[in-house]
């Protein structure tokens, strides 16, 4: 794997830990963190759209924001998921896009299960995907 990718992975984990500390110390509530990340994603979409970037490139720009949203939400529920699990949840989630943008899940890697199961997974919310990931991890570890 590219060293820069590993460094970014470490950065995502560190920023997630900082966000968790802010929440745990009461500096920011879970709702305030969520609103901040929502605002960051909206700003990123608008700025990158003005630059004329493709939807795929904008998705790449907002990945860290979405990663933090899922990781912080999981941590708030006592689940500290590894990077690859959070990245998978973000990649599989059918997340809302700003008006005028298609809502789709970009095909990344192999998706398990039947075509019907994959379609159903794309329609789950982030919270539902988080619950699914938790149960899969528990089954795997059992």
Summarize the structure.
This protein has 142 residues and is mostly helical. It has six helices and no strands.
What would you note in describing this structure?
- The protein is globular, with a radius of gyration of 16 Å.
- The longest helix has 22 residues, at 3-24.
- The model is unreliable at 100-122 (pLDDT under 50).
- With 142 residues, it is mainly alpha-helical.
- The chain has one domain.
- It is built from six helices and no strands.
Q: What is the helical fraction, as a range of percent?
A: 55-70%
Helices and strands, in order, run as: HHHHHH
Number of distinct beta strands? 0
The description of the largest β-sheet is:
none
- How many domains? The number is 1
Oligomer: single chain
Tell the overall outline.
globular
Taking all Cα atoms into account, the compactness measure Rg is: 16 Å
**Structural class of the secondary elements?**
mainly alpha
Mean pLDDT, nearest integer? 77
What is the strand content? under 5%
Low-confidence stretches: 100-122
Continuous helix count: 6
